[in-house]
Amino acid sequence: MTTPRPSLTLSSTVLDAPDAAELADFYRRLLGWEPVQEEPGWVKLLPPGGGSGLGFQTEKAYVSPVWPASPGDQLMMLHLDFEVTDLEAGVAHAVAEGATPAEFQPQPDVRVLFDPVGHPFCLFVNDPAPGRTPAISPEWVAEQTRNIGAEDRVAELPAATPRQVPEAG
User: Is the link from the previous residue into 47 a cis peptide, with omega within 30 of 0?
Assistant: First the structure.
């Protein structure tokens, strides 16, 4: 005898962080999603128009995953994929908000980045670019990091407005 399956709806994917509010703020700026629940140690963001959201939970014992991992490294348990229409503009926006590009980039139409606490996430386009994966040089990452450090992103960005990325010309 089988029991009927109950109704299940994915509400959110939850990411642990040393500070839930800080990581939620990064994803709020990155995605333009609004917080719908904020409590000590917990924040939930939802996309405009509803749907499954992202939750952020404070975990004092949080350890950043290593990517790509080697035996014995802290593994990522999942990663988030975000489709973009312009890969270069998507990476520039993510970096401006505090993401760091991974040194290893496995595909020409995907960019792996790390959020401020080290969770890997991917930006991808559905129209694959031909050829080899272009390298992201350490110099480019250092330049972007210097530029970000020179800004006060929080002061420049109103609480409920995502940063606009200029179109590539």
Answer: no
| pLDDT by position in tens, the chain (length 169) | 789 999 998 999 999 999 999 999 999 999 999 999 999 999 999 999 989 999 999 999 999 999 999 999 999 889 999 999 999 999 999 999 999 999 999 888 899 999 999 999 999 998 655 554 555 555 655 565 555 555 544 333 333 333 344 444 4
- 3-state DSSP of 42-111: EEEEECCCCCCEEEEEECCCCCCCCCCCCCCCCCCCCCEEEECCCHHHHHHHHHHHCCEECCCCCCCCEE
Q: Which two tokens stand for residue 52?
A: 């499954």
Query: Residue type at 166?
Result: P
CB 99 within 8 A of CB 30: yes
Token pair for 141: 């990452």
Give the CA angle between residues 143, 86, 16 to the nearest 5°.
70
